[in-house]
TrEMBL record:
It comes from Streptomyces milbemycinicus. PANTHER family: PYRIDOXAMINE PHOSPHATE OXIDASE FAMILY PROTEIN (AFU_ORTHOLOGUE AFUA_6G11440). Signal peptide: none annotated. Pfam families: PNPOx_N (PF01243). Residues 10-138 form the Pyridoxamine 5'-phosphate oxidase N-terminal domain. InterPro entries: Pyridox_Oxase_N, Split_barrel_FMN-bd. This is Pyridoxamine 5'-phosphate oxidase family protein.
Length: 197
């Protein structure tokens, strides 16, 4: 039923890019640490960079577990489910890295997301994932569900924030600068691109 792939291309890439939601899973190294599982959406916030590399935009939120886990150990799994059409589940197991806004790579990475206004969502970082294992499974038990539209609540909430107020928002949240388990999370104050003259 399942198959292992050497790269993200062809029908596999098309399937991944057509999905409206995907999930990320990370965990700390500690055996009693908190496993994190997050849904990711917003049309235009995910990109396949090449046959072994994908990236997604990490937007404002009240936690930063994924960032904390990636900073500690880099392990991440991404998963897509077919909620329409033929059943399918695709997982990309790999190594992830949060690329913050002050990183010299950030502007070039941001060009892979032309269809989303990042200013509306309080962009914190771009998560870049290098695939180590790519596989699919049947998905026979995944229900049919229909996509209607993206929610506007996230943009409605964060489009009014400036870099300074966004950083202040993060500083008030208990699990942004550090994870639930006390690992370093999002660097604060919020990393910003160098100001140009």
């Amino acid at each position: 039923m399942g198959k292992v792939y050497e790269r993200i291309d062809g029908r596999l890439r098309t399937f991944i890019e057509e999905q409206k939601i995907f999930f990320t899973a990370t965990a700390p190294l500690a055996g009693d640490g908190t496993v994190n599982l997050s849904p990711k959406g917003l049309t235009g916030s995910f990109a396949v960079l090449d046959e072994l590399t994908v990236a997604y935009l990490d937007f404002a939120g009240s936690n930063a577990e994924t960032i904390a886990h990636l900073r500690e150990n880099g392990r991440i799994t991404l998963m897509w489910c077919a909620f329409t059409g033929p059943p399918n589940i695709v997982r990309v197991h790999g190594r992830g890295e949060p690329v913050f806004r002050d990183d010299p790579r950030f502007p070039d990475l941001l060009e892979h997301f032309p269809d989303i206004d990042v200013a509306e969502h309080g962009l914190r970082a771009i998560i870049v994932v290098t695939a180590e294992l790519i596989r699919d499974t049947c998905g026979f038990a995944v229900p049919f569900m229909d996509y209607r539209e993206d929610r506007t609540l996230h943009a409605d909430r964060f489009r009014r924030e400036t870099d300074d107020t966004l950083s202040a928002y993060f500083e008030k949240k208990e699990h942004v600068a550090s994870s639930i388990d006390g690992l370093p999370g999002l660097p604060l104050p919020l990393p910003l691109p160098p100001r140009t003259a």
